[in-house]
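Protocol step 4 of 6.
Sequence for Cytochrome c oxidase polypeptide I (uncultured Solirubrobacteraceae bacterium) entered exactly as in the expression construct, tag removed. Do not edit the line below.
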Amino acid sequence: MPVTLRQPGWSRASASMVLGLAFSYALSIGARAILGYDPLLDGESVMRIALISVPFFFLVGLGCFSYWFRWASGAPTVPEDHSGHGAKSWKSYFYPNTDHKVIGIQYVVTSFFFMFVGGLLAMLIRAELAAPGRQFVDSNAYNGLFSVHASLLIFLFIIPVFAGLANYVLPLMIGAPDMAFPRLNALSYWLLPVAGTMMMLSFFAPGGSFATGWTAYATLSNTAPLGQEFFTIGVQFAGASSIATALNFLVTIITMRAPGMSFFRMPLLVWANFSTSLLVVIATPFVAASQFFVLLDRSLGFNFFDHGQGGDVLMYQHVFWFYSHPAVYIMMLPGFGIVSEILAVKSRKPVFGYRMMAFSLLAIVALGFTVWAHHMFVSGMQTWIRVPMMVTTAIIAVPTGIKIFSWLATMWKGVLKLDTPMLFTMGFLTMFVLGGISGVMLAMIPLTIHVSDTYFIVAHIHYVLFGGSLFTIFAGVYFWFPKMTGRMYDEKLGKLHFWLTFIFFNATFAPMHVIGVQGMPRRVADYAEQFASWNLVISLAAFGTGISSLVFAYNMVASWRGGPRAESNPWRSLTLEWQVSSPPPIFNFDEIPTVVGGPYEYGVPGAVHGVFGGSPTTAGPGRRGPATTAGAPSA
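Step 5 output, structure tokens:
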């Protein structure tokens, strides 16, 4: 008979953290004794070891490694009784859980928490920049604000929130009962709050938080105060989480598709996450390596980046950007998949050029590794590499342009339903095209030299990552909210959220193009009087953007608690996740479906996508043909 394990508690995790601190101090004493230093005078070594060991002790105490430890020690493994699988109550979300749906919600909620923290830091930044001179913080504190702001939103929000949405819906989309490695999936989530907490705690480090930006350029990061190591080590935990999740996605997609689901019957969101996972697995070790080199420089004096000791400071930038430009597509490709799903459903039309859309995702993966040095046009690197990087940067716009025209063709003469997910999707198309245009402009070497390190760059990255990634995130959350919670959101509040965000976002970042071209430098706490008027406008608009996020938060919380009950398929979608109850059963399907058609055959008479025990799922009312809906069976 299976044995039910007692769920490890937070008290055990807290005790483990205390043990981790004791271990750090003892290890520091031993190391410094061997090297001949007085350990009592070197608290930095204790902190450095603690930043690495305490999170592992916490994860062990929480139970993330229990099964593997039993296996590694040779003890009999406990038969799986699924006691840690599925959401039995709200408490299930505060412990390691092997259900991909629970993990998906954990990812999404935790990532949005870090978004609100990063957004609060953005409000403090804009409050300081509302007028020239010092308002609230000095230059060092300001540097910490924008550094933690960017790091949280990139490493702890945009990248993991896409992983959370995919964690929830991807196994359902391909007809799988769960992810390929459920325990690894649970561990990958719990690495995330560790990394985020570490970055936020950097404000309490001696000398203040890390203040070198999210790029953490050496040699500045080599000589920064102790707070820098909160970033250097925190990125390692966030990167490990990303790699574990990406490997899980790849194996799940390749090996666990339902019968009949060939690669060219997969929804484009699955294609997008397949492509993203390839990027993550290949590229993320490079950012881990860059920060590992910095850690070795700081702690053991390896001098990888110290020119005076034979190091090469440009090597850091090459290694870092070899990850960080593909990272832009890690933060974009899942959004492309979300947009494709929503446009097909809300236009009631098949996706135009489905196979070309899939191939363009793979083309972006390949080309994404050929453009990293366009971030280094003014770094002092060899001049001969500039022109090839300019050319490849222009070329990578081609597969992205294919997607834009395919989306527009999908909407052409469709039966458009302009609800909240569709509004955010159309807002994304507008904002991302504008961000892409400025990106192509920045591919041109003379313009990049002129606007380098100005607010033009700030405007560009926010049009891509806020107007691009965040708009698709909001669209995806609204679209799959009924499936994830079993409730419907408030449509009026959703539309209010969109219009507030759309208007105030453009009012915030469009003027930055103007003052950037005029020479307003980025990453400064003070600026010339000539930029005062525009900065006041930008700050006021930024506060409006912050207010819009509160509308979203209220809508999500209130609707989750007491919104109307959702139907199993309120959007009349063809993809498999909408053919089960909302929220889905613990293992998704009572019986594995057989896929017999494509996922986007809306308006095609007699089109069938999946079969559940002989009961087909067909398209709802579309642009062509009669209204032929079949009741979606609840598993």
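Step 6, annotate. The first strand starts at residue 594 and ends at 595.
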